């Protein structure tokens, strides 16, 4: 079923960026895109104060949730702070009971958990707070290492960029990959990242600036994924010893060079499968694997499905044009954390 009315519940003392994510995704106004009725709701009444000291005048009260097709809690104040207002929790429960899709992004999962709607379900949140979610709500099966969890009528996501991924996933699930891709290109973000991907794997690439050998090296690696690249070769290119390179790399990206390289290859394979009709054997070689046989186990391990199944699900109808747009998106914003 589609959705047209989106209620975004804003609580007091929330982070400004996360609060704006669903409004940015569903509020896009452009010919050819669905015209969503996006309602910013003051979930606790009155102006909404953000953690940056900026006050927002949300134009809607909780009554705007009552007939929304999609209800989103985009974020939450610190989980150990004061609890959400009872009226807001009741509005969420009523929305779910009448059949609305309910979504929690990042720390918003704590609000949804407080309603009891997540009991017996699988959910995620920002990895830093996943242990707290699991200990506070032991009836929830918490998955700390994924971008988002889709349980049909209830969906939850990791932090920041994970919220964008989930919103685009909802558009893709309901309106197809072309519409999701159009919105993603407008936002200059990757059009799709599978929910099963690890939160901490899609590591940011430091912007290559003069005098920054690590950033320049990683930028070079992204442009040469079809070649054999060793960690020793990268450390040499960065003019560092292997030990120094490994330490600096982990400081900047949070992972090892080998893990990062493997994931970048899989990400590039996903883009090619989404946006081209190239044989999988050729896709494998273009992203640095010797053959499709070598690609498949790594792809399945990270994405959760085979390359063929992924293409059948997410391959767009206008592959050549989509490929060019995806390349432009990747150059503009190589990765999001």
Automatic annotation (TrEMBL):
InterPro entries: Class_I_gatase-like, DJ-1/PfpI, Homeodomain-like_sf, HTH_AraC, HTH_AraC-typ_CS, INH-QAR
Keyword Secreted in record: no
HTH araC/xylS-type domain: residues covered: 215-313
Statement: the UniProt record of this protein carries the keyword Translocase: no
Domain of life: Bacteria
Keywords noted in UniProt: DNA-binding, Transcription, Transcription regulation
Family annotation (SMART domains): HTH_ARAC
Leader sequence residues: none
Region (Disordered): 310-337
Compositional bias of kind Basic and acidic residues: 325-337
One Pfam family this sequence matches: DJ-1_PfpI
Protein name: Transcriptional regulator GlxA family with amidase domain
Organism for this UniProt entry: Streptosporangium lutulentum
């Amino acid at each position: 079923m589609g959705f047209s009315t989106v209620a975004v519940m804003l609580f007091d003392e929330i982070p400004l960026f996360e609060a704006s994510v669903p409004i940015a995704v569903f509020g896009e106004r452009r010919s050819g895109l669905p015209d969503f009725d996006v309602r910013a709701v003051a979930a606790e009444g009155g102006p909404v104060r953000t953690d940056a000291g900026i006050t927002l005048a949300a134009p809607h009260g909780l009554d705007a949730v009552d007939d929304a097709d999609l209800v989103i809690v985009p974020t939450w104040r610190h989980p150990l702070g004061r609890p959400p207002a009872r009226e807001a929790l009741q509005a969420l429960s009523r929305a779910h009971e009448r059949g609305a899709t309910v979504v929690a992004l990042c720390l918003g999962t704590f609000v949804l958990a407080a309603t009891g709607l997540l009991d017996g379900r699988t959910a995620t949140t920002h990895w830093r707070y996943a242990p707290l979610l699991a200990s506070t709500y032991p009836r929830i099966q918490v998955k700390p290492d994924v971008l988002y969890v889709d349980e049909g009528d209830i969906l939850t996501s990791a932090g920041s960029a994970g919220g964008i991924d989930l919103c685009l996933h909802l558009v893709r699930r309901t309106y197809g990959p072309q519409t999701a891709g159009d919105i993603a290109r407008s936002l200059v973000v990757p059009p799709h990242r599978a929910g099963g991907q690890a939160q901490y794997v899609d590591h940011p690439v430091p912007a290559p600036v003069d005098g920054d050998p690590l950033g320049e090296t990683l930028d070079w690696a992204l442009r040469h994924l079809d070649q054999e690249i060793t960690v020793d070769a990268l450390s040499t290119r960065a003019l560092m010893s292997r030990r120094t390179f490994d330490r600096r790399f982990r400081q900047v990206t949070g992972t090892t060079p080998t893990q990062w390289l493997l994931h970048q290859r899989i990400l590039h394979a996903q883009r090619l499968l989404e946006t081209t009709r190239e044989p999988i054997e050729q896709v494998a070689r273009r992203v640095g694997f010797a053959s499709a046989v070598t690609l498949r186990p790594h792809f399945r391990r990270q994405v959760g499905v085979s390359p063929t199944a992924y293409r059948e699900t997410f391959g767009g109808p206008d592959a050549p044009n989509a490929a060019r747009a995806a390349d432009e998106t990747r150059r503009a914003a190589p990765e999001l954390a």
